[in-house]
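Why should sequence recovery work at all? Because a backbone constrains its sequence more than one might expect. Tight turns favour small or flexible residues, buried strands favour hydrophobic ones, and helices have their own preferences. The token representation captures these environments compactly. In the example below, the structure is given first.
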């Protein structure tokens, strides 16, 4: 059991902690004001890369790393977590601007030829039947088990 004096000593600490939490709120408007500078910097760097190579990450990975670090830094300066929905929305806008034509090609799967398909189906079925037959045959012959 805690002594009543201990609770009175903890109360000011908790009140101060709660007041500190309120002053550390995310300043979303400041963050949204600063993030476009990151986008502008990324845009300037991407001008150095041929637009045909925008889908090849190895061509601009350093620029993208600088961009993400910039957005994280600005979010932290505004006392916001990163990533957060507003920053993600901004980053998504940059992705749409630069990488909208970078869709991955869908692999078109085809069934194997019928001969191969039938073989792949029949082998496990035949093995299962053979194992069942073997188990039944061995269980009827009690002289093998002794």
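From this structural description, the recovered sequence reads:
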């Amino acid at each position: 059991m805690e002594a009543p004096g201990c609770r009175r000593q903890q109360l000011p600490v908790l009140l101060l902690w709660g007041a500190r939490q309120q002053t550390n709120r995310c300043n979303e408007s400041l963050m949204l004001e600063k993030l476009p500078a990151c986008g502008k910097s990324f845009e300037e760097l991407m001008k150095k890369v041929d637009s045909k190579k925008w889908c090849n990450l190895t061509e601009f990975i350093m620029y993208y790393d600088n961009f993400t670090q910039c957005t994280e830094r600005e979010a932290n300066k505004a006392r916001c977590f990163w990533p957060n929905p507003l920053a993600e929305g901004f980053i998504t806008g940059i992705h749409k601007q630069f990488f909208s034509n970078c869709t991955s090609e869908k692999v078109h799967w085809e069934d194997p030829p019928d001969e191969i398909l039938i073989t792949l189906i029949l082998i496990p079925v035949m093995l299962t039947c053979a194992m069942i037959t073997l188990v039944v045959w061995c269980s009827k012959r009690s002289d093998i088990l002794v």
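A few observations help interpret the result. Helices lie at 4-23, 28-46, 61-77, 85-99, 114-140, 142-145.
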